[in-house]
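BACKBONE STRUCTURE TOKENS:
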Amino acid sequence: MGEITNFRGETTDPLGDQSSDSGASELMVRAGQRVRKARDIKGIPRRELSEISGVSPRYLAQLEAGEGNISIGLLQRVAAALDTQIEWLVSKDDPWENEKLSFMKLYSRASFEAQQRALSQLIDGQNSEVKANRICLLGLRGAGKSTLGAMIGERMNIPFVELNREIEEQSGMPVNELIALYGHEGYRKLEARALERIIATHDTLILAVAGGIVAEPETYASLLNSFHTIWIKASPTEHMDRVRAQGDTRPMQNNPESMEQLKAILASRETMYSKAQTKLETSGKTVNESLNDLERILLQNGYVD
């Protein structure tokens, strides 16, 4: 009998038994499918799995495609990084499917209240892992995102980042010049890329985003999925007054209908802003009062460790 040296089943069998090659190929396909399935279940990107296991992204890509010539030792490292048993990756039986079927039966027989509790726990657990300690403040200009973001970051020793500043640093141009050069569509693409970089490089931060980010569905969905989101809200009058207090007279300049336009923008975006997990109303409050409210939201909801 020949000696098997890896999971591809290379052998020195002089009889040239083709069944061993076929079986080994099926084994690798199955192992690759299980690795991909485990990653999806646990929400672990391939890049992160590579870092944890020490197996290169190229090997992981080949493995998941069923083409990997991976050793038992490396497969064991992948299994350990996925917090699963190597036997599950190669076994013909799928214990996960059996557990899933059992759960589905229990769920279908449970009361509505019990089903809702189970869903809530599953969702909260997943969100806590994926969103880590990332908090995003969103809302219309003048709500207080930048002011409160910088202050709460300093108070809680959490990095504060403004998405527009990140875009400007990467492009070397002010936002208004970027919009003039590339248009709003081009700016939204830069905004999406900047958000991707931040998600990939920060597990803990306070992020303030421009009010119009909700206009791009994919970018906004990524934001909602990757951050604990808080809508910083104020009345139209306070929005306008705060922007003017910052020395920007553009909202009122040569435009007597600017207040009505502002109200219309708020009304049109309210549905999108309300998708945030939490809302912080800043109207009629001092900065310190709003800051204390924000800190309470972060701690009570477990948005930060």
